[in-house]
Design goal:
Helix content: 25-40%
Strand content: 15-25%
Oligomer: single chain
Shape: globular
Bound molecules: N-(iminomethyl)-L-glutamic acid, fe (iii) ion
CATH topology of the largest domain: TIM Barrel
Number of helices: 15
Amino acid sequence: MTAADLVLHGARLLTLAPLREERPRVGPAAGDVGAVMDGFVAARDGAIVATGHGAALQTVERVEDAVDVDVHGRVVMPGFVDPHTHLCYAGERWEEFASRRSGADYLAVLAAGGGIHATVRATREATDEQLLTLLRRRIGDAVELGTTTIEVKSGYGLEPDEELRQLRLLARAKADAPIDVAVTYLAAHALPAPYTDDRKRFIRDATNAIAAIVDGSLAEAVDAFVEKGVFDVDDVRPLFGAAKKAGLAVTMHADQLNDVGASVFAARMHARSADHVANASAEGIRALARAEIPAVLLPGSAFFVGYPPPDARRFMSARVPIALASDHNPGTSPLEGMPTAIALGVTLCGLTPHEAIVAATINAAHALGRGGRVGALVAGRRADILVLDTDDERELAYRMGAPLIAEVYASGRRVA
Ligand code: NIG
Ligand code: FE
């Protein structure tokens, strides 16, 4: 007998159980959600203790006051993992959004001191308490939409002291968040004014901040915007070298609008993930496949900015693991939550609904270095579980915007 304090039973259960232990999914497995009819999941003290179907439920004993729910007619699946967001900001960019829709170019707006710089100004002006309130609200909104692990980047401070301020606020938000928050130091997002003619000095100062970040356990990874006219591969090489040396993971905004060789570079650096990659070269795709590095597709930014979205088929046919993320940010992707990212991953990037679900769970967990801990309903993993108000999970991709997230459990506790 297994003792449980949470049992959900009678479900269409998507286990997403790893087929090849600890590796992100590629090939036919990239579309296999591990569906089980009349399935159950049982958890105790925040961890899954058993899953199965039918009569096997009889081997699960309920402890006193256990939560026991008959979820017949519903889908039960792992909580979503959102591996790329920029939640730490103040202000909105309505004007820029409108002007881009009438033809303004994203990188030209940035080069003229708007775009990311506009958010940096608004974020610097906000008080710590205001920023914390915004962060907590945004994390809460993500939870309502089924996210149980979320990556959040700094990146709207730019100057190292302001970045450190954001990371300290993120540590506070993480400490009382109902879900797991993976913090990333987005060290090189745009070049701040005091450094206009000295990118090398900027990278040096951004790199020097790593010591304090490691000291305070303020981030797990370092990120940079590697893009034409922003930072090139040579600019960021010392930053990423130092990050790795300090024991941090590295990840990149890679080849989003132009191929600048960032995907090849990400593979060479053994990055945790390469994100955006809408314009990755064939060589970049081969390099990511060889290194088994997940490509995190961010269809929201292609949708809102209006550039051709990343073609998932190019990556999948080369056996690059695919993950999906919201990229929530006030500039390129003001979209909320993973169900919309799933729907756009299908409609814009060419994923099947099941591939999109794999990309939003187990493969997204791998993109955050958590592929052995979350993203699948398997004994021993954290009990991060969703109940969908449907008997067919493909509805996530099909009924875009529908309120399908009925119940959310994080570490075995109901959080939405
Ligand atoms: O993921 N492209 C770089 N960074 C963000 C957008 C930041 C912004 O425009 O505020 C992205 O698209
Ligand atoms: Fe981003």
